[in-house]
Design goal:
Layout (H helix, E strand, L loop, with lengths): L8 H19 L2 E2 H8 L3 H13 L3 E6 L9 E5 L5 E7 L3 E8 L4 E8 L6 H15 L7 E8 L2 E2 L6 E2 L12 H8 L4 E5 H12 L8 E6 L3 E7 L2 E2 L24 H4 L3 H6 L4 H7 L24 H13 L3 H25 L3 E5 L1 H5 L1 H15 L5 E4 L6 H18 L5
Parallel strand pairs: 4-7, 7-10, 11-14, 14-15
Antiparallel strand pairs: 1-3, 2-3, 4-5, 5-6, 8-9, 11-12, 12-13
Helix pairs in contact: 2-3, 4-5, 6-14, 10-11, 11-13
Length: 411
């Protein structure tokens, strides 16, 4: 059968099918009449469309709109079981995997803590297998999987760069080994980029085509979205702002060996205990004070205590606590000003556990400081996807590609 060409009935039907499916995703269950109204299709055409999608297994009848005046109308929704995707968030501490249905609902999740000698392939398979089992599925039921890691896989060499701290992920054959172990298409993306995808689809960046997401957790990073699309750079390293040389801190040389840079040393989580001590703010005992790691949960040692320190200051932003927040805002703004001067984004989304802990007091101080240092004045907004943004970004990325394939009824 020849491929559809512009203007042919098959292509127009496919376009109408896709429009209806997108409306069902956006609005939830709709009646035939409502779909016809939103798409501009006649009732007979809308009825044919729904019959076609129901026969293809893409929509299901979900009940009626009883309670309204007049006869009840049948409601239709996207069939959540038409496809499933997987997402993984990989950190030095653990591998977290989730499975979502076609509507984006998470139906299974599983976490595997890092174990020396387990190997990246083994940990990915164990985490994904646990999530699939929790969903009551098999791995072959997944249409696509997106794996988030710190750093990025160089598209020229296939090697992981900018993440020397991630154990077991630097084998030259890793991508081939993972492809052999997993039966579905697999994509790899930087973790901060996927946090931006989550905010773009689900959070504070919806409706914005040009924005920067500034992330501060185990490391400082940024995601750049230009014209609605992620900008990754030639080697995948766009946004690795922790390596930026910045005023106010000595130059860090051999940055790839140190896995750090000037901006990371100026405003990363590890600077907070020193900054607090200099300003007379009490430093909580434990990892942030340089002691043995207690329970940082999914974070690198010290991050949880740094978060607690910022949260305490944000809860009572006065005296030494206000000075602490102000000094930290200055450090963050010093690096952020370079990004704003080059990119001139519409908004800057503040994300990651460390920045989020500072709340509105830190956001306001950072916005005021940035206005003094950068020529343009983007609006600074707090990220809205607070729980597992990287994981949800991985699922949204996998869903976007899967929906493009599954919703294309011209094939």
């Amino acid at each position: 059968m020849p491929a559809a060409t512009p203007g042919t009935p098959s292509l127009l039907r496919a376009m109408n099918d896709r429009a209806a499916l997108e409306l069902l995703l956006a609005h939830g269950p709709l009646s035939r009449t409502r779909i016809g109204h939103l798409t501009g299709l006649s009732k007979p055409t809308a009825s044919q469309l729904l019959a076609r999608l129901e026969a293809a297994g893409l929509v299901v009848a979900t009940g009626t709109d009883g309670g309204r005046p007049g006869p009840s109308a049948q409601l239709y929704a996207v069939n959540p079981r038409a496809a499933y995707v997987g997402g993984l968030d990989v950190t030095p501490a653990r591998v977290l995997a989730a499975v979502a249905d076609l509507t984006g609902t998470v139906v299974g999740i599983h976490e595997v803590p890092y174990a020396a000698g387990a190997g990246a392939v083994g940990q990915v398979c164990e985490a994904l297998g646990g999530a699939v089992k929790a969903a009551g599925l098999h791995r072959c039921d997944l249409h696509r999987v997106v794996i988030a890691t710190p750093g990025a896989f160089d598209p020229q060499t296939g090697r992981l760069r900018y993440a020397s701290h991630l154990p077991g992920w630097h084998s030259p054959t890793l991508l081939d080994d993972l492809a052999a172990a997993l039966p579905m298409p697999v994509e790899y993306e930087n973790d901060v980029n996927l946090a931006a995808v989550a905010e773009q689809h689900l959070g504070a960046a919806r409706g914005h085509e040009d924005f920067v997401l500034l992330w501060n957790e185990e490391g400082l990073g940024a995601a750049l979205v230009l014209g609605g699309r992620l900008h990754r750079g030639w080697t995948g390293g766009a946004g690795e702002v922790g390596f930026l040389p910045v005023p106010g801190h000595p130059l860090v040389r051999q940055v790839t060996r140190a896995n750090s840079g000037g901006f990371q040393e100026l405003a990363g989580f590890q600077t907070l205990p020193r900054l607090a001590a200099e300003l007379g703010v009490e430093v909580p005992p434990g990892p942030a004070a340089g002691g043995a790691a207690a329970d940082d949960g999914p974070y690198a040692p010290g991050v949880a205590a740094a978060v607690a320190l910022l949260a305490r200051a944000a809860a009572a932003p006065e005296g030494p606590y206000l000075a602490f927040l102000q000094a930290y805002a200055t450090g963050l703004a010093t690096g952020l000003a370079s990004l704003v001067a080059v990119l001139d984004p519409e908004i800057v989304v503040l994300s990651g556990a460390v920045i989020a802990a500072g709340g509105e007091p830190l956001r306001g101080l950072l916005e005021a400081e940035l206005a003094e240092l950068a020529p343009s004045r983007p609006r600074l907004v707090t990220g809205q996807v607070r729980e597992r943004p990287v994981l949800y970004g991985a699922l949204e990325s996998a869903l976007a590609a899967t929906r493009d394939a599954v919703f294309d009824t011209s094939r």
